[in-house]
Amino acid sequence: MRLRDLRGFALDLDGSVWAGERLLPGVRVFLDALRRAGRPVVFLTNNSRERAEQLALKLTRLGVPAAPREVVTALELLGEAIRRGFGPSAVLPLGTEELAEVLRAAGHTVVAPEAWAEARVVAVGNDPAGSSP
Predict the structure, then answer these.
(1) 3-74, what's its fold?
(2) Where do you find CATH 3.40.50.1000 in the chain?
(3) pLDDT of residue 111 exceeding 80
(4) Which residue(s) pair with 41 in the sheet?
(5) Three-state SS for 36?
(6) pLDDT, tens digit (0-9, with 9 covering 90-100), for 41-57
(7) What global pTM score does this model have?
(8) Which of 18, 40, 64, 99 is a plausible cystine mate for 95, CB 3.0–4.6 Å?
């Protein structure tokens, strides 16, 4: 199979498209070529701190225009994954406030750390501040 035969592309963000606040060399040219050829592109990340909207804004700021619908984050998949595995649940989120918001939006009850025994599920994500909601 040749590159021109591929119908779409999914690219990891961290370390593949950018490094911190720097777009990696050649990424803009590569993505421009894919888009000119009419090839759909989505961006993936296991980032558990930010939502698709935030990451699309970062891509755009770095020179790669992107819409939130083109970004898939582990954070935003978590609420649905818990729902499929356990149904609507009492969840103890250990991570950013965004983690708690995503869980609430998916129909789960967010359990405070001091009420940990009430949780049926624990969701663990990265929290650069070292605190939890």
Answers:
(1) Rossmann fold (3.40.50)
(2) 3-74
(3) yes
(4) 9
(5) helix
(6) 999 999 888 899 999 99
(7) 0.81
(8) 99
